[in-house]
Amino acid sequence: MKLWGGRFSKETDELVNELNASISFDQRLYREDIQGSIVHAEMLGAQGIISQEDVRAITEGLEGILADVEAGKIEFTPDNEDIHMNVEALLTARIGDAGKRLHTARSRNDQVALDFRLYVRREIGTVIGQILELEAVLCRRARECRSAVMPGYTHLQRAQPISFAQHLLAYGAMFRRDVTRLEDCRRRLNECPLGSGALAGTTYPIDRFRTAAGLGFDGPMGNSLDGVADRDYALELLSALSILMTHLSRFAEEVILWCSWEFKFVELDDAYATGSSIMPQKKNPDVAELVRGKTGRVYGDLMGLLTVMKGLPLAYNKDMQEDKEPVFDALDTAEMCLPVFAGMIDTMTILPENMRKAAGRGFINATDCADYLTKKGMPFRDAYTATGKLVAACAAQGKTLEELSLEELRAVSDLFNQDVYEALNLENCMALRGSYGGPAEAETTRQIEEIEAFIKARSQ
Ligand code: ARG
Fold it and tell me: Whose CA is nearest to atom 3 of ligand 1?
């Protein structure tokens, strides 16, 4: 008979059982379920709702189950529907009546809300740790190439000179926000739903502050309906993971471009590339492509859960059992992508000569040419037009700006002097972009140090 079989006179239809059961996926919550039950039992004991003897039996029983699950000795069964009833049934089979008292002043509704919150809280820590490892890799690689000029792009058109360090550190800035977004989510979710009961609290003299503190929460959730109905934290996590994946996906796209023959700014390590079954010459960036592709499924997880939640009346509805798989999937995906991506960046060969070559074509010092004239007294808009004329002339002759003679330059403006060639030198153009946040070496060094301090502040 089912744990809840009291008012039923028939067995559940087989297919209904299959539809209803969540044990195939919610068994992941076994640790949280057991932890929550132990703290709940201790509170029941401290409040005199169950005896200390029962508390001892429950605690020992649950610890035994935990050890057996970890040792792979337990097979959960769909007959007991979900992780909560599986654990309770195992406990009662082991310790008898005390096990049947565990569910006093509790419902599966606040139990699952608790388990899932604890799980999400823990996993956020794992993801943050992985992002910080990626950040450390970015800092190391950026340090190597602070003076190597590469073209910065807008519209995928060569635009202005930057360093490869500056480009990597842009992602470093994004990943820092991903970390703080996850930290915000974790801070906000850190209230305890246990004691909300099915939806309306309980008549027992429970101590919700005690269970909240025992489980590391800042306090209990303040409304029992909200306690069982809220899945904001799961949506926030999925949103944060979606944004994180967006960043990884953009980065992945660039790696794919960079290791193409058209760019050849980097070469992937053999351990992070794959071959073709027919084309012997191929070395493909599958890792980056998969990270880009898997971003789609994380978005799907977010959209899926948003859609599940959108029309639900308060408080608990069984629809909400559908909250777990998308969250598990998104976490698995992000946690699989992050370390592989970090490894790919860590091991790729950076090819600064090719970046420098690309920087030489495309007039990425045109702004600097206009700035030169402006600094000599020409209004910027006029300097812009004059430089545009030079660019057109160069394009017609297949020349770069710095290949024009002083005479040719002076034909457009007599403000040009010998020192223009220094102003047009790409290394100078990059090095002089020392405005706060710019690509000059002192600024990329500052950015690296900031990220390193950010990592350090989180590593005690
Ligand atoms: N397996 C359920 C879930 O994941 C647990 C809560 C069930 N509550 C209920 N009233 N049927 O949502």
Answer: 321
Q: Which residues pair with 149 in a beta bridge?
A: 163
Instruction: Return the ligand 1 atom nearest residue 81 CA.
Output: 1
Rg of the Cα atoms in the chain: 30
pTM for this model (two decimals): 0.94
Conformation bin of residue 395: beta by default, left when phi > 0, alpha when psi is -120 to 50: alpha
**Cα–Cα distances in Å, from 436 out to 74, 374, 445, 447?**
59, 21, 12, 10
Instruction: Report the sign of the C-alpha dihedral through residues 180, 232, 318, 299, in that order.
Output: negative
The residue whose C-alpha atom lies closest to atom 11 belonging to ligand 1 is 318
Identified catalytic residue from 24, 51, 260, 276: 276
CB-defined site of ligand 1, < 6 Å: 22, 26, 82, 108-109, 112, 316, 318, 320-321
- Distant-in-sequence, close-in-space partners of 50: CB < 8 Å, separation ≥ 6: 41, 44, 98, 101, 104
239, two tokens: 């949103």
DSSP code of 191? S
Which residue lies with its CA nearest to atom 4 of ligand 1? 321
Does an H or E element contain 402, and which?
none
H helices within 48-150, ranges in order?
52-70, 83-95, 97-101, 108-144
Tokens of 184: 């915000």
pLDDT tens digits for range 350-395? 999 999 999 989 899 999 999 999 999 999 999 999 999 999 999 9
> Residue with structure tokens 């429950």?
58
The whole-angstrom separation of Cα 234 and Cα 240 is 10
The helix (H) or strand (E) run that includes residue 425 is none
pLDDT in tens, 2-32: 777 888 888 889 999 999 999 999 999 999 9
Q: Is 459 a catalytic residue?
A: no
155 given a catalytic annotation: yes
Location of structure tokens 């946690």: 335
Q: Terminus-to-terminus CA distance in the chain, angstroms?
A: 50
Q: From CA 81, how far away is CA 2, in angstroms rounded?
A: 9
**Atom of ligand 1 at shortest distance to CA of 198?**
10
- Report the C-alpha gap between 313 and 335 in whole angstroms: 33
**For residue 211, how far is its CA from the centre of ligand 1 (angstroms)?**
21
